[in-house]
Design goal:
Helix content: 40-55%
Shape: elongated
Strand order of the largest sheet: 3-4-5-6
Order of helices and strands: HEHEHEEEEHHHEE
Length: about 170
């Protein structure tokens, strides 16, 4: 990886208290390398070469540890279907673009907690992107229109210098 190694990525992911399973696939097979990877936050450390059956078994083991998989996030009277990429409110639904979906997922996971524009840029566009805060503002505008269009009671509220959060209630 060009800017940082896998150990540093794992440390940063864990520093943000993200519990997503981390499986390191690497050519570094020494004992010290494996220990460093696991201590950095990896859940499993698999060295090359490996058999595809072993990789599949590792992935399945990590998924079992996660428990039941969540296929939907809900807030207010609205759900985000994680498989279809649709926002659903009652009998109405709307398909989201990839960026809209990623932003909505982050906001629904945070609920009423503020999410900064910088966090959204990093989680949705990535570290290497040239995207700017205006990109976030444009996509939040798209999401607001789509939420309104399906009759959602969710509002995406902006708080100056703190970012965005969700509020649910009457849209009066």
């Amino acid at each position: 990886m060009p800017e940082m190694d896998g150990y540093e990525v794992a440390r940063r992911v864990r520093a943000h208290r993200c519990s997503t399973p981390i499986l390191m696939l690497t050519a570094k097979s020494g004992l010290e390398d494996r220990i460093e990877g696991l201590n950095a936050g990896a859940d499993y450390y698999l060295t090359k070469p490996f058999d595809s059956r072993e990789l599949l078994a590792c992935v399945n083991a990590l998924l079992r540890r996660q428990g039941a998989q969540v296929n939907e996030l809900s807030y207010g009277n609205t759900s985000l279907d994680l498989e279809s990429g649709k926002l659903i409110c009652g009998s109405k639904s709307v398909r989201l673009s990839a960026k809209e979906f990623d932003i909505m997922r982050v906001l629904m996971q945070a609920k009423e907690n503020n999410v900064s524009k910088e966090t959204l840029l990093t989680k949705v566009w990535g570290y290497e992107s040239n995207a700017v805060e205006n990109h976030v503002e444009v996509y939040v505008g798209f999401l607001r229109k789509k939420l309104s269009g399906i009759g959602s009671d969710i509002r995406i509220e902006a708080i100056r210098r703190l970012g965005y959060h969700l509020e649910a209630g009457n849209n009066d």
